[in-house]
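Could you join me in thinking about how sequence relates to backbone shape in a protein? We need material for that, and I hope you will provide a protein of your own picking. Label the sequence line and the structure token line clearly, so we can match residues to local backbone shapes. Would you write everything just below, so we can both look at the same thing?
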Amino acid sequence: MPKSDLDAIDLRILAALQEDGRLSNIELAERVGLSPSPCLRRVKRLERSGHIGGYRAILERGRIGLGLTVFVGVKISGHADERAEAMKEAIMAIPEIVAFHMVAGDLDYLLEVVVPDLDHYQRFLLGKLLELEIIREVRSIIAIETFKVAAPLPMSHLSSAPAPSPAPPRRRAASKARRQASGRSRA
């Protein structure tokens, strides 16, 4: 298990932000059991240290017309030359490729490609990917149905004890305060 420089509060911050990156600092502080100023300092430190790489919206692929996901296994004709570096740079620049991994085994790389449909995939494959001369072979695996995508990263390996759950939302406390104010408190 890797030694982590993160404490339990850092882990709660990371878990809460993975769940909802739009939390205000006040909401985040309440969830992790800190006051807002120390919470903000910790978030800024986690950003500076690279534990938090950025923030973005996760779009629903089908709702924006990207109904086809294809996993593409790629074999190349050489790894240790300028063509291999140029191929990596070219792949990084292709917007249809949303994930790019070097892998062990029969393939050299695994790509995750999202496009509207099979016609678009054919144009992508012939007009972009196979235009890269170093690519020797491709294998396409079409996803029929997706059950999990862009899930939060697991973090239980970062501490010997399981990371504490984020504090429950303050809605219960607010409704209890309203009941007490109206005289309907349960004792």
Summary: The two ends are 47 Å apart (CA to CA).
